[in-house]
Write a structure and sequence with these properties.
Layout (H helix, E strand, L loop, with lengths): L1 E5 L2 E8 L5 E6 L11 H8 L3 E6 L18 H9 L10 H14 L5 E6 L1 H12 L4 E7 L13 H8 L9 H15 L8 H11 L8 H12 L13 E6 L7 H9 L5 E5 L11 H12 L15 E4 L1
Parallel strand pairs: 3-4, 3-5, 5-6, 6-7, 7-8
Antiparallel strand pairs: 1-2, 2-4, 8-9
Helix pairs in contact: 3-4, 6-7
Length: 313
């Protein structure tokens, strides 16, 4: 694992595959570390001929934590948005996109395929719209445009998300139990959570700094950024939108909205997938990502995405 200085921050990152290959940047989701892009996934993706880079967003893992900036008050944030005021937040998703571009610059990478999950999918959309000349292809997984009229997160999931996790320095077992309970809730019916594998990821994350304010600051960043619909017309990269039919955190209509606002985008609905990337889907997802990167949209009819996937649009 490595770190570098970019955009005035320390960013933690890892690379997989040969540096001579086309780069593929993996952007992580809300409040989680780059380790959620597991090594087996990254290695299998690199085996398709890519130089795969995963990194920690600011406020996560080995990247700079903005701990001195308090998490915005949710009530004040909601009131500002309702009144049409621009909320005061430590950063927005535009800043996260700038971090990603700075990372590529320091690594000497001019162009990259970009894959983002959840919040990272929104950052990837911003990259492809604001830095179209740098993005070879775009994949947005279990994400959204952030448009206010879209279906909301299931109330119990939001309650779990907003409930602070126990401090692992005080009670590691309680911290792990909290993380496992949340993972079970957002897993899809078609792909039950691999308990041992997820627990191992949570334990690995404990080796890096944890910041209880990260979740609030990143939720505020999403809210303050607002709807991405107006900028998606600028996306010219071949685009694949992947979403699970059982996602309780970002409902499937949110993924449909992304695809509907990017010209030529392909929507891949995965039956039984929740708000995670289970190991059982690694190979079909990698095939879909690779096909999009090669300017070839997935032909679901030939079974290239297995029985769980169904295309739309």
């Amino acid at each position: 694992m490595s770190t570098l200085q970019a955009n005035g921050l320390t960013l933690g990152y890892d690379c997989f595959g040969a540096e001579r290959n086309e780069a593929m940047l993996l952007i992580s989701g809300l409040g989680v570390q780059r380790l959620r892009w597991t090594e087996p996934f990254c290695e299998r993706l690199a085996a398709q001929g890519f130089y795969v880079i995963r990194f920690d967003n600011r406020d996560a893992g080995e990247s700079t934590h903005l701990s001195r900036a308090p998490a915005p008050d949710v009530g004040v944030l909601a009131a500002d948005l309702a009144a049409g005021r621009v909320p005061v937040v430590p950063y927005t998703l535009h800043d996260l996109a700038a971090d990603a571009i700075a990372l590529l610059d320091v690594l000497g990478i001019t162009y990259a395929h970009v894959v983002g999950r959840s919040m990272g999918g929104m950052v990837a959309q911003l990259l492809a719209s604001a830095h179209a000349e740098r993005v070879l292809s775009l994949v947005s997984i279990m994400s959204s445009t952030g448009h206010p009229g879209l279906p909301a997160t299931a109330p119990d999931v939001m309650a779990m998300l907003m409930h602070a996790a126990p401090d692992p320095r005080v009670d590691e077992a309680a911290f792990l139990a909290h993380g496992m309970a949340f993972a079970r809730r957002i897993a899809g019916k078609g792909f039950p959570l691999n308990e041992a594998a997820h627990r191992a990821v949570l334990q690995a994350e404990l080796m890096h700094p944890l910041d209880p304010g990260c979740m609030g600051r990143q939720i505020a960043a999403i809210a303050a950024t607002g709807s991405l619909r107006p900028v998606l017309a600028r996306v010219v990269a071949p685009t694949l939108v992947v979403h699970g039919s059982d996602d309780p955190m970002i409902p499937p209509d949110c993924g449909r909205d992304v695809a509907e606002h990017i010209a030529g985008a392909e929507l891949l609905l995965v039956d039984g997938m929740g708000h995670d990337v289970p190991a059982a889907l690694y190979d079909p997802l990698i095939r879909a990502i690779t096909a999009n990167a090669r300017r070839t949209l997935v032909d679901v009819a030939d079974g290239s995405c297995d029985e769980h996937c169904a295309g739309a649009i």
